[in-house]
Amino acid sequence: MKATKLTSGHLLGIIWDDRFKEISFSHPMIRDVSKARISRFKEMVKDMENVIFISPDYATFEDLLEVHDMELLLKIKEASSLPHIGFLDSGDTVHYPGILNDVLLVAGSTLTAISMSRFLNIQYIPLGGFHHATRSRSMGFCPVNDVNLAIKRLLDHGERVAVVDVDAHHANGVEEMFYDKPVLKLNIFAYNGSFFPGTGDPSRRGEGEGFGLNYNVALPLLAGDDAFDEALRMLKVVEDFRPTYLLGIAGVDGHKDDGLKSLNLTSNSYNNLGLRLYAMSRRLGFKIISYGGGGYGPGSALSMFSFVKGLTGEKVNEEISTRDQEKKAKVKKLVDSFLEGLSSGL
Q1: Which of 40, 222, 258, 342 could form a disulfide with 297, with the two C-beta atoms 3.0–4.6 Å apart?
Q2: Residue ranges of the Histone deacetylase domain (predicted)?
Q3: What pLDDT does residue 343 have?
Q4: What is the pTM of this model?
Q5: Catalytic residues
């Protein structure tokens, strides 16, 4: 296929390998649910117009050393050779025979998307967005951190990077590694001070070169579509930052029917997010590499599909929207405070 055909503003690249349907680093009790959403998503998206499927290359051990300590990678390599299932952390992130190859495929998917961004403005990696892993440890179903690898590579290429991370859980691994770096980090997640991973204090605004570039938009537990819509007003900070690349994590574990229920969103919120990112990309000219994030329920695949529809500029309304005026008011107050500080230079 000629490169000229790959530059359509409406064309979406989906990084896909059939192995994705068999990969899950989640707790054994929800691994089958996690795998099922990937398989169902592929069935839903396979006949979409303006979509091209791209086979990923594998990353190398050396690639992962850019964002992880050797000790952690050797631990994963050793676990990969064991004949049984176990845990890489305190009891969430599973390891199994051959996990190292799957980790390298996940990381390679991100590197493939960066390479293909020469031709495609918007890409989606359904199995990706492992934002909890830190430099030295696996955690939260994330053996390694593919988002951090993307950020590091793009920064090394001289790009201006923004991260918009929507998930039931705060992206602690991304915040930790790039807290003092010139990367815009906008997190929208469920928070009550102790909900996993326990990070995400809205007062943490960055330091050094990253001062003022860290935004934690903490949603009350069980917040609905109306509160999420308020939170998306924070996309103004992306407009002001003017990135050349936006990494979008659209974790669908915020859906109201998720097995790890924490938010009360419908698939409409994910479509709304996709539409907003699509419109901003068209207007400002930045590239988008997006990820499927977490998702452990019957609404996961639909939410992924709705997000992807949004990334191609298509509005859908699949479910009855959820509302909670009290929670919406709390989010509005937080967003107002952020935006007022932005206008005053704080």
Answers
A1: 258
A2: 35-299
A3: 62
A4: 0.94
A5: 132
